[in-house]
Amino acid sequence: MRYSLRQFLRIWHIGVILKRYRLDNLFNTAQLPVPVRWLRFFIPAGKDLSELPRGERLRLALQDLGPVYVKFGQILSTRRDLLPPDIADELALLQDQVPPFPGEEARDIIEKALGKPVDEVFASFDTTPLASASIAQVHPARLHDGREAVVKVVRPDIDKQLRKDIDLLKTIARLADKFADKFIQGGARVRPLEVVCEFETIVFDELDMQRESANASILRRNFKDSKDLYIPEVYWQWCKQRVMVMERVSGLPIGDIDGLREHGVNLKKLARRGVRVFYTQVFRDNLFHADMHPGNILVDATNPDDPTFIAMDFGIVASLTPKDLYYISENFMALFNQDYRRVATLHIEAGWVPANTRVDALEAAVRTVGEPNFTRPLNEVSFGKLLFDLFSVARRFQLTIQPQLLMLQKTLLNIEGLGRQLDPDLDIWSVSKPELEAILKEKNSPDKMLHDLREHLPRWLAQAPEIRGLAHNILVRANNEQAAAAHTNDDAANLKREQARWQHKIVQALAGGSLSIAGAILTALEAGPWFLWGYSVPGMVLLVIGGWLILKSLR
What we know:
Elements: H1 2-20, H2 34-40, H3 54-65, H4 67-76, H5 85-91, H6 103-114, H7 118-121, E1 122-125, E2 131-132, E3 136-143, E4 148-154, H8 158-183, H9 187-190, H10 192-206, H11 209-222, E5 229-230, E6 243-247, E7 252-253, H12 257-262, H13 267-285, E8 288-289, E9 297-300, E10 308-311, E11 317-318, H14 322-336, H15 340-350, H16 359-374, H17 383-394, H18 403-422, H19 428-443, H20 446-463, H21 467-488, H22 492-524, E12 531-532, E13 535-536, H23 537-554
Parallel strand pairs: 5-10
Antiparallel strand pairs: 1-3, 2-3, 3-4, 4-6, 7-9, 8-11, 9-10, 12-13
């Protein structure tokens, strides 16, 4: 009962804030449940702020509600597929800054996590934090070997507070799900509960410092010896679930354009490098920093004519499934080449729109979005905006895509925005296309394909004995489906076509199984006369052809 009362009081407080900023104007209140409509009359009205834009009122309300709601607003700003542009732009301005918790408390958390006094771990530790956010705060320190470090410490009891607030958000979201279409225009498309669950996953992942350490470590390895991007070193021996220790870096803030100019930084080169960093992270490494706002980026201007980006805060990184990565890269290249039919076909093949979607209708919609961009001056073209518009128009065709693709689109918008700040004349098109072409050329090179073949060959050999059983299953399924078709379909012509199709599949499966078994035998016997990495070339060729035939028969 006490918990229910606490929830009620928290909802009352939220209602007061919403009414204070006149956010009730966003809803069709006549369609709200009767008890909620009555409750509105007992909530005091504050200063009339209705003259402010709705996006600004929402941002101010989230700031008043506290750090968890600020974080929610920040993550919600990435879902531009769900929000009007004015609200998404305003939520992107939310700053995740909260008062620090006591430094001595941070010492206690570190000592408990590491199992030893702070003085044994660090030669010096400053209890005054460098920065403080809703999830954690950062303290400067020095290791005993003289290396400068920063210590990121998760806030005490933040997980309990998060759980309470997220449970409350879920309660509100369930109510919103039920009545969304009644009091918000297009509300069913927003799917409030799904958005809150996505937020829950992201924010609880950010609580795990070992996860963030791993993210930083992999990104550092991906960009080892790179002149484009520097990732600070993680000091793994001192990293625990609640504590992260890494190299302390210094540089010029990316948002301080005047300061960069004063230091003589080559802003044009820096802008182009930012675009290259994005394409490298996404399409070469399939692991990208998904929180690339100015607060997380510094510039190493030691050599002003050859500047390097420095990334920080690795709590939010993302990757795509191999399938989505393939289709998004092919979509990018098709857009670069203004091949709108290819874009439409790729959307259908990827399963992002239903298989029965008319290609010509989708192609026309894509052309409507793409063509206006090619008539603009090149320094005004935004590929991130084009991608967003493409996703928006495809929603008319029941587009369904993963949140990671939306994070990619948001990250691209951030990178382009930073690039244009550094160099207003930046031609995104001429920088992006060669970068993507070079990455895809390297990924699809014969050497890379041979490397992949060698990597997968042992698994194919291990699966070879199962081929007979697989072929048997195909035959059984074919017989069953033919019997069902004969029972339910009196159309002799359709039945004949179905039988011919399955006979073709059976032949493919049997041929594939036979070739795969022969290839496995030749490979196991090390039969010559040609060998590659110690494997029989004839055996590998038969395995590849056999595997392809089996996969084709299953489609």
